[in-house]
C-alpha cells in the first residue's frame, strides 16, 4: 500500500527551544522524499512527528487523508527504519522479517512465506535461516528494510539508515534502496545530512534549516536553481559574489560586482527580479566556469584571474583563482582533466549567463 502525507503548520517546541517552526509539506503517494539538512535543523523531529513518536506542539498531520496528529505509533500506517537496524540477534532472518506480522496475529505459514518473499526482494532469500551476526553491515541493512516493508506500511520512515555503512557500500545501497522503492511503490520519507545521498535517491528534496523548510523540489532544481543562499551553499560548493542591482527593467537586471557588471535575464532571479539599488548575491558553481567561447550559450566574462593553487580530482582540476580586479577574493573553479594547469597561470572568468543564480543578499 501507499498513501499521500499532508503536514500543516507543524511546530514543535521543547521549553524555549523551537525545533520545528510552522512547517507545511505535501508528499505524494509513492514518492521518495528526502529530508536534508545539518544537525539540529529539525529533520529528525519532523520524521518523529510523522511516526507518532513525538506530538506537534501545534499543527496537523494526515496520512491517506486520515487525521493522524494524536494517533500513537502502533496504530499508524507507518513503519520506521533506524540507523542501528535493531535486529533480534537470537532470531533467524525469516523470523526477524516476520516479527511485525507475528505481532499482528498472522499465522506461521503465511508469515514465513511473506518473510521469504521480502527477503527475496532484498536479495537474501537463500539466507533466511541465518542469524544477523552471520551477515555484513549491508546485508543487515537489507534485512531491516525487508522487515519494515513486510507489514505493508502506507509510509516508510527512514532515519539515516545508511549512515553506518562505508562510502562504497553506502553508494551501492543507495541504488538498491531506490530500486526497491520503485518496485514496491511505498511512500518513503528518508532523513540524511548527506547531499550526495539525497540527490542519488530522492524524487524531491526538502532542505531544512533552523526548524524551517528552506527549499523543496527535484534534486536538479535544488542544485541548479536554489531559492535561498543557505540552500545554495548546503547543496554543494558555490562561489558567492556580492553585488548591487544598478538597473532593472523588462524582466532583466544589471548587477554591479567587484568583478564587473553582469547583465542577467529574469530567469536567473529565483526569488523574483529585484529593484534598482537592491543588494544581491550571484551564486556560481565551480563547474560552471568555462573558457571564453566554449559552448553555445551566451557567456559573460568577469575579468581575468590567476591560478593560486590546484588539486587533481580525477574528473577535473579544482582550482583556486585570484581575480585581478579583486585579488583578495578567492574563486573556486573546476577545469578539465586535460587542461594544462599551473600556478600563476592567467585564465578568463567566463560563465554561461543561464548558469548564474542571483538571490537577495538579506538571506545570508
From TrEMBL:
<keyword id="KW-0614">Plasmid</keyword>
<dbReference type="InterPro" id="IPR003439">
    <property type="entry name" value="ABC_transporter-like_ATP-bd"/>
</dbReference>
<feature type="domain" description="ABC transporter">
    <location>
        <begin position="5"/>
        <end position="235"/>
    </location>
</feature>
<dbReference type="GO" id="GO:0043190">
    <property type="term" value="C:ATP-binding cassette (ABC) transporter complex"/>
</dbReference>
<dbReference type="InterPro" id="IPR027417">
    <property type="entry name" value="P-loop_NTPase"/>
</dbReference>
<dbReference type="GO" id="GO:0005524">
    <property type="term" value="F:ATP binding"/>
</dbReference>
<dbReference type="InterPro" id="IPR008995">
    <property type="entry name" value="Mo/tungstate-bd_C_term_dom"/>
</dbReference>
<keyword id="KW-0813">Transport</keyword>
<dbReference type="InterPro" id="IPR017871">
    <property type="entry name" value="ABC_transporter-like_CS"/>
</dbReference>
<dbReference type="GO" id="GO:0015847">
    <property type="term" value="P:putrescine transport"/>
</dbReference>
<dbReference type="InterPro" id="IPR012340">
    <property type="entry name" value="NA-bd_OB-fold"/>
</dbReference>
<keyword id="KW-0547">Nucleotide-binding</keyword>
<dbReference type="InterPro" id="IPR003593">
    <property type="entry name" value="AAA+_ATPase"/>
</dbReference>
<dbReference type="GO" id="GO:0016887">
    <property type="term" value="F:ATP hydrolysis activity"/>
</dbReference>
<dbReference type="Pfam" id="PF08402">
    <property type="entry name" value="TOBE_2"/>
</dbReference>
<dbReference type="GO" id="GO:0022857">
    <property type="term" value="F:transmembrane transporter activity"/>
</dbReference>
<dbReference type="InterPro" id="IPR050093">
    <property type="entry name" value="ABC_SmlMolc_Importer"/>
</dbReference>
<dbReference type="InterPro" id="IPR013611">
    <property type="entry name" value="Transp-assoc_OB_typ2"/>
</dbReference>
<dbReference type="Pfam" id="PF00005">
    <property type="entry name" value="ABC_tran"/>
</dbReference>
<protein>
    <submittedName>
        <fullName>ABC transporter ATP-binding protein</fullName>
    </submittedName>
</protein>
<keyword id="KW-0067">ATP-binding</keyword>
<comment type="similarity">
    <text>Belongs to the ABC transporter superfamily.</text>
</comment>
